[in-house]
Amino acid sequence: MSRQWIADAPSNIALIKYMGKLVATADSSRNTPTNASLSLTLDHLTTRVRVREVDGPKGSLSWSPLVLPGWDVPVISQMGQARFLKHASRCLEKLESTENRALLIESANSFPSDCGLASSASSFAALTVAMAKVSGRDVDDPAIRRRLSELSREGSGSSCRSLYTPWALWKTEGAEPVSGLPKAGQLRHLALIVDEEKKTVSSSEAHVRVTSSLLFRGRVARADERLATLLDLLKRSSGENDLHAWNQAANIVWAESWDMHALFETSDPPFGYFVPGSVQALNAIRELSSEIRNELGTNHFREPMVTMDAGPNVHVILWVDPMTESFVHRLQSKLHGRIKIIDSNQFRNSDSGKRPV
Ligand code: DP6
Q1: Which atom of ligand 1 is nearest to the CA of 309?
Q2: How many CB atoms lie under 10 A from the CB of residue 15?
């Protein structure tokens, strides 16, 4: 009888960014970051990987899209498939798997794959966990999980953070969970999808190119300082329900996002991800925040935390309070339905990993 193994893993958004590798190379097996990064796990945006024993040459690996009702069928280039399968084989080897049948690896995303949201983090994390199951490992054992995070990093750096939720801190080898920060239920995540095109410069390529920027000098110290301050502020905003700490944290996240995009734009040659819709979205958030600040007074408004990945879309993290619903509603009307919003709230109470109805 042929066997199968299934694993789900979430995406994540970095608040302190992984940008720059110690060995500046596009070779994905050496994803050693120049600085530590911190991310919020996006439990509603998941990838599912199913591995099945199939007929075929012993030990061979192949990929195909996983077709599941309500899930998105990913389209992966030949190069992308080769990278994915290379990672699968690396996992089997490093986890000392005894499996020797031909394996078919299938994957699907719970979110539209073409919407420009990072699926590589969730894909590589789900693949790593799936291959660990194939290798007979207990993926819930904390020591194994730590090992899987290190291994996932070799496939795609940011994926190592997707092994933990709701917060993950990645210093060097693998990520670790962080306690004492706001709980998932205290936060709401919006992804403002302004452009669904595939990016012209991949993040792996961006890691190499940013080292040519003069601003890269001092980057590690800036990121380290922000990380320490941000962790402290997030702890205060959570534990002491401190509104000012949250608002200062939002400022740090904003500055960090611009720091990364400034690295892109000052590389030699420069490159960037902003499109007109990005600026429109950022302006709408700024305008709305200023309106609400005026209505409520600065001491009563928790600012939205805004960040962008290596892409044109805008991520917003909101503190859930009586204002949140109206903030989202007013933002939607400011954007006149021209910019699609993927809202983590749409997924609440639905089965994990399923698309909203
Ligand atoms: C901008 O993890 O995609 O999203 O390690 O080469 O696969 P590789 O790069 P990747 O880089 C992600 C960079 C980022 C910031 C972040 O997630 O920290």
Answers
A1: 1
A2: 26
Mutate to test the pocket of ligand 1, among 18, 162, 167, 209 (most ligand atoms within 8 A of CB): 18
Residue nearest to atom 6 of ligand 1 (CA): 204
Which pair of tokens denotes residue 334?
């400011």
pLDDT greater than 50 at residue 221: yes
C-alpha angle 230-233-235 in degrees, rounded to nearest 5: 110
Q: How far is the CA of 316 from the centre of ligand 1 (A)?
A: 19
Q: Show the domains of the chain with their CATH numbers.
A: 4-177 (3.30.230.10), 184-347 (3.30.70.890)
Q: Give per-residue pLDDT as tens, 303-318.
A: 999 999 999 999 999 9
pLDDT over 50 at 357, yes or no: no
Q: What is the pLDDT of residue 352?
A: 46
Local confidence band at 240 (pLDDT 50, 70, 90 cut-offs): confident
Token pair belonging to 180: 């004492």
